[in-house]
Structure formats: structure tokens, C-alpha cells
Amino acid sequence: GTGEVTSFGALCTALSATIGTGNIVGVATAIGILAGGPGALFWMWIAALFGMATKYSEGLLAVKYRKIDEDGHVLGGPFYYIESGMGHKWRWLAKIFAFFGACVGLMGIGTFTQVNGIASAVQAFFDPDKANTVSILGNDYSIAIVITAFILAILVGLVVIGGIQRISKVSQIIVPFMAVLYIVVCLVLIIVNINKVPAAFATIVKCAFKPMSFAGGVTASLAIAMQKGVARGIFSNEAGLGSAPIAAAAAQTKEPVRQGLVTMTGTFIDTIIVCTMTGLSIVMMGSWQDGSLEGIAVTTDAFQKGLFFMPGQVAAFILMICLVFFAFTTILGWDYYGERCLEYLTNGSKVSVQIYRWLYILCVFIGPYMTVKAVWTIADIFNGLMAIPNIIALLALSGVVVAETKDYFARHKEL
Question: What Å distances lie between residue 177 and 173, 238, 330, 361, CA to CA?
């Protein structure tokens, strides 16, 4: 079929945007003792099961309602299935989605959280005690963070200026490699500590359904566990946000249902596999109970305890490399999403896209200097604002999804 990248390339582009800091840092911030506790991981699984349904619908509708211009440039995503599927009178809803989509890329999932996660991991490894600092606007920052911000901004700039083809090519190389590396490391950790797995699962399920008190009088409430689990699950797999269909629309396929099936596997890989690996490791090693640890430090602690047969610095280095790759590809994927949203808002203005790319690179440079709490709060707010118009569209067009699905499988049975 027509399109700009292969179905696998579209999936890798979508996965590059979804497999990021949410899988390592996000899980840790959700299940920590001062957050939702281990029960949050259970609610991540529930969110993922529903998320696979929404991702399927998004991928299907993206291909069905996409537009291809004279140059073979594919235009697709929620804004097009809102406008073409729901009718032109709903164009205002598509505009709202596109606006918040561009904001999420620029100031949410796309830049601040990813770069902040990378910088935190690099500093934790190279300069944990902040022995070498420089003063910027009255605040002291580790030299490791400053160098990281500079290098990242250059690398991101080199890729995003090349557009979807370059992003897709880089993603197809990095995504399978980084996912397999991380899963293998986590599997090794789980296997060598296999005796702790049953107790870990029991703790996750127990905490999911009833409040539990822990040392120091801290209580993990059911409501917080659900909120953190669902929020971090959606942050991680982006189901319902409307981001994945922007990549799915570019796939070389003529079957909307087939691309929907390909797209929904992204949620399974991201949350059911990768997030579970992280969460299980943290619960097994008890790192979630240390209230003094935050973000990447929680996962690092779990890796160092679980991979006891290797020096702690080696385990920390492996985690840092995984996080850098995860976050870097997410930065690339979300630049593409943000550009497509801006193209829709500005009727294809190439100048606005170029300006957006440079602003995006600037945000990558700024990200490391923000606090962990601030970047995750900003991301959660923009995620919600972006998801609302898309969910409305998915509900309104659910009849189309059902009809297309029945038709596709009926034709398959005849073959």
C-alpha cells in the first residue's frame, strides 16, 4: 500500500515515542512508598488492557481517514479522523487536539521528562555527590548535567532536521536493540532472584485492592494506587492520547484493520512486558520502600541489589545506557508527532515546522535543569488535555471501527 514507511517502521516510530522514561522512571515514581505503592503496577496492567483496545481503534482510523498529498507526503492522525469521520463541523475539536499535541511534544512527554530522566541517570552514575558543579542562574548544577544537555541537543538536532524518514531509520535500529537489551537484563535479575517472585506478585495484588501501612506510618491508599497506576500507564504506553495514530498513518498499507492490529501490539510490548519488568524488579528487591530514593534512583537501587553478582557501578551503567536509549528515541518520536500537529494547525506551513524544530531542540537543552516533580506534573496535565478530544472521537467513531473490523475478518475467512 501507499505510505512513507513500512508497517514495522511505523510501529518502531510509535514504540520509540512510547518506550521511554515512563518505563523506568515513571514506574518507579508510581510504585514508590510515597506514591501509590506496588498496587499501582496492577492498575497499569488494567489500563494497558483497555489501552490495547483504544490503540487498535486509533491505528485503524488513522489509516482509514489519512490524506496523501501530491508529493506522496502522508497526513494522518486524530485531527483527520475527527474532521473526516465526525464531519467538518467538528474541526474545532481537531484543532484543540492538534494544539495540545504540539504542546505535549514541546513541553511534556517529548522533551522535559525524557531529558530530565537522562540527565538524572548520567549524574547519578558520573557525579552522584555533585562534586563538580557550575552555577547557572543562581543554582548549582553538576557538570555532568550541563554536558549531557549540550550533547543531547546536538544529537536530537542532527536527527529531527531529517524528518520522518530519518527518525524512522534511527528508530528501527535503536528500538529493537534497546528493548531486547533491557528485557534480557531484567530477566536475568528476575531469574537469579526467582524465589522472590511469588511474594512480589502477592504484594502487587494485595496493595491494588486495599490500603497497606508500612514502616514510618506511611499508608498507600487504594485511590492513589489507581491514580498513579493509570496515569503512569497512559504516560508510558500513550493509549488514548492520539499520538500513535500519527505514526500509524504513515505506514505502507492498504488495510486499516491490519495497521490497527500492528499498532495495538505497541501497548502490550510497552506496558505488559517492559513496565512489568521494571516494576517487578523494584518490588522484588524492596527498593520501593525507601522513601529517600526518587525516580531513577529507585530503579538503580533495585538493579544493584538484584544483580548482586556484578559490581554496583556496572549495574548502574547498564541501566543508564538503557534509559539514555529509551529516552532519546522518545524525544525523536515526539518531535514527529508535534510537527504533524503543527502542520494541521498551520495548514502545512513549512516555516512553522522549522521554527518548531528549533524550539524543540531548545527545550531539550533546558529539560535537565528542571525538577523531577515539575516535569512529571506538566506532562500529566498536557497528557489529559490531549487525550480528551481523541477519546471523544474514538467513542463517536466506534461504529466505524466495528464495521471495518467485521468486513476485514469476513474477507479473510473467504481467502
Answer: 7, 21, 14, 25
Tell me the per-residue pLDDT of 300-323, one tens digit each, with 9 for 90 and over: 888 889 888 888 888 888 888 888
The CA radius of gyration of the chain, in Å to the nearest whole number, is 21
User: 66 — alpha (psi -120 to 50), left (phi > 0) or beta?
Assistant: beta
Q: What is the pLDDT of residues 329-346, one digit of tens each?
A: 888 878 888 888 888 888
Cell numbers for 150: 549540550
Provide φ and ψ at 110, rounded to 5°: -65, -40
CA distance 17 to 55: 14
The Cα–Cα gap between 75 and 3 comes to 10
Residues 6 or more apart in contact with residue 213 via CB below 8 angstroms: 219
Handedness of CA 211, 47, 279, 381 (dihedral sign): negative
Quickly list DSSP for 182-221: HHHHHHHHHHHTGGGHHHHHHHHHHHHHS-EE-GGG-EE-
* Inter-residue contact 313 to 321 (CB < 8 Å): no
User: How is residue 84 annotated by DSSP?
Assistant: I
